[in-house]
Structures are given as C-alpha cells and as structure tokens.
Write a structure and sequence with these properties.
5 strands, alpha+beta, 4 helices, globular, UbiD C-terminal domain-like
C-alpha cells in the first residue's frame, strides 16, 4: 500500500494535479489506514470532481493495490493538516517520513506516513 500511495501521488503529479499534502493516516477508531490527499485544484471543484480525478488517476495505474475507498480528500486548510504542518513540512518531492505517536499542540497523531506536506 505504501508503494501504491506513492504511485498514485506520482500519477496525480503527472496529470497536472498539484498535490500539496499526501499522507497515510491511521484512524484508530475504525482501525483503518486512509490515504489523505489535499490540493486546491481538487477541492475547488467540489468533492465529486476530486474523487473523479483520483479515480481517473487510479485507472491509469496497472494493477493498483489501492482503491478509491482507501482515499480521503481534505481541504488544504483542514485542521489536521494545519496542525501537522506545524511539526513537519516537505518539499515537492515524494518522501516517506514515518510520524508515529507524536503529540502536536496537545493532539495525538497515532501514526502517519507522510509523502508530501507543503
């Protein structure tokens, strides 16, 4: 799933969709990992258009391990992303930064794998 997330972010970049946040987050309440993506381009046209763009990018990947249900689209100014940007920022490349059991301004981030956080 880690490589699949990386591949999806690269496919979105290649499609001209600038992703400013891409990270796997553990949601402990449902015991599931979700790939959170954020970009002004996707959010500006509404959630349906955002998920359609992600689905289109997924369809261009041969044998994707990832499904649309694994993806969450967030606004660039989402509280969780703003909070995480206080602790870490990346460049425009695709990194693999593990962020586990960290507390930022009193809020626990149980587990995350950050590809990009601008």
């Amino acid at each position: 799933m880690i490589q699949s997330g990386r591949t999806l972010v690269q496919q979105l970049d290649d499609s001209g969709i600038s992703v400013n946040a891409a990270l796997w987050l553990l949601f402990p309440e449902v015991q599931a990992w979700k790939l959170m993506l954020s970009t002004p381009t996707l959010v500006a046209d509404g959630p349906k258009a955002a998920y359609d763009a992600v689905q289109k990018a997924l369809s261009k990947i041969s044998h994707p391990q990832l499904q649309l249900d694994d993806v969450v689209i967030a606004k660039p100014d989402a509280p969780l992303l703003k909070l995480m940007r206080l602790a870490i920022r990346t460049g425009s490349g695709i990194d693999s930064i593990r962020f586990t059991q960290n507390v930022i301004n009193g809020q626990l981030i149980p587990d995350a794998l950050i590809y990009r956080l601008q």
